[in-house]
């Protein structure tokens, strides 16, 4: 089926109370190899290390003209491997062994080893979008504000051990209640400039991120666009209620979340005298505002289930043609709306 397949395995994935995989590294490796052999796929096995989380291995695979690279680990492993495969003919396959597995969840890739291997053998290859903030690639989400401030606590929650989990929860709540809303200047697609008072701005490529929550249900991973969520006028209690509502499949606080689909976005803090605001890409702090974010359409080849290849998380070819036609036909209306907005109020609470 594949001329050459490499399995990049993270031997420490899933070392968390929240991990979906209960097997140890040796058990997972044996199960993966056995499942792939059922489809006559004999992978070479490469291991991540503290010095190379997977990006270097992925680049080596590209140089050696490997057909498919299987990333077996959590979202962090996938981020690293994917970054080495961008804009190449090498295809990424996913076996989710981590704590959150948001990328796999967004692509409806099963969390059992046997079913994930079946997708590798029997699924389809599609090209998905990737985001880039200040030169740093992200697959899930980049953000400014409260979300970026909370990620260190979230990472602590994911670590193995009850004490680490409880300490992360306490630190997260402390950060939440101490954080104050900020005034941001936002430029959408290099044209429209608006001011918002917001607690958080998230730029999403996947529907799921964070604690397996579907924050961006309208995100489509190959539409050539990113979904922006601007959290305006949120109290701390409302923010918690919003997350709980999403986790329980209930209606979120939509009126207080401004949603936009964009090609690019520029975010900066209005008050220059304020303390620097941390920005993150896929949970990793990458500096401070200002932040420039762009989409890299179809930058990554990935194996997905056949049902996903036809939507809704990915668009089929006919749907893409309709989307393109709709974008072209709406250009005049969008320009007209922008002109009306220019005559309206600039500041949005």
From TrEMBL:
Residues in DAGKc domain copies: 1-137
Biological process (GO), any one: phospholipid biosynthetic process
Cofactor needs: Mg(2+)
Pfam families referenced in this protein's UniProt entry, alphabetically: DAGK_cat, YegS_C
GO molecular function (one): ATP binding
Key word Lipoprotein present: no
SUPFAM superfamilies (alphabetical): NAD kinase/diacylglycerol kinase-like
Comp. bias regions, Basic and acidic residues: 322-343
Stretches of the chain forming a coiled coil according to its record: none
Region (Disordered): 313-349
Protein's UniProt keywords contain Phosphoprotein: no
Keyword terms of this UniProt record: ATP-binding, Kinase, Lipid biosynthesis, Lipid metabolism, Nucleotide-binding, Phospholipid biosynthesis, Phospholipid metabolism, Transferase
Ranges that cross the membrane: none
Entry similarity comment: Belongs to the diacylglycerol/lipid kinase family.
UniProt-recorded name of the protein: Diacylglycerol kinase
Taxonomic lineage from the root: Bacteria, Bacillati, Chloroflexota, Ktedonobacteria, Ktedonobacterales
């Amino acid at each position: 089926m594949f001329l050459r397949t490499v399995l990049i395995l993270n031997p420490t994935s899933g070392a968390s109370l929240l991990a979906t995989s209960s097997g140890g590294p040796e058990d997972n490796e044996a199960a993966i190899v056995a499942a792939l052999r059922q489809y006559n796929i004999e992978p070479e096995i490469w291991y991540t290390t503290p010095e190379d989380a997977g990006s270097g291995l992925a680049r080596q695979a590209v140089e050696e003209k490997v057909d498919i690279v299987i990333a077996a680990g959590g979202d962090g492993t996938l981020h690293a491997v994917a970054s080495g495969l961008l804009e190449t003919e090498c295809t990424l396959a996913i076996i989710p062994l981590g704590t959150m597995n948001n990328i796999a969840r967004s692509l409806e890739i099963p969390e059992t080893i046997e079913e994930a291997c079946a997708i590798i053998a029997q699924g389809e290859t599609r090209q998905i979008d990737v985001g880039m903030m200040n030169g740093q690639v992200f697959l899930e989400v980049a953000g400014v504000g409260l979300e970026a401030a909370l990620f260190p606590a979230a990472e602590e929650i994911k670590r193995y051990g009850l004490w680490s989990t409880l300490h992360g929860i306490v630190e997260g709540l402390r950060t939440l209640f101490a954080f104050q809303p900020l005034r941001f200047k936002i430029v959408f697609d290099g044209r429209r400039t608006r001011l918002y008072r917001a607690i958080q701005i998230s730029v999403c490529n996947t529907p799921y991120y964070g604690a397996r929550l579907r924050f961006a249900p309208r995100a489509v991973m190959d539409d050539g666009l990113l979904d922006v969520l601007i959290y305006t006028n949120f109290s701390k209690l409302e923010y918690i209620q919003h997350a709980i509502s999403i986790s329980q499949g209930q209606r979120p606080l939509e009126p207080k979340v401004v949603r936009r689909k964009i090609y690019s976005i520029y975010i900066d803090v209005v008050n220059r005298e304020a303390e620097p605001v941390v920005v993150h890409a896929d949970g990793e702090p990458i500096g401070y505002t200002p932040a420039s974010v762009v989409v890299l359409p179809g930058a990554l080849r990935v194996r997905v289930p056949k049902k996903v290849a036809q939507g809704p998380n990915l668009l089929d070819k006919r749907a893409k043609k309709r989307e393109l036609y709709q974008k072209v036909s709406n250009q005049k209306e969008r320009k007209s709306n922008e002109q009306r907005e220019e005559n309206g109020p600039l500041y949005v609470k």
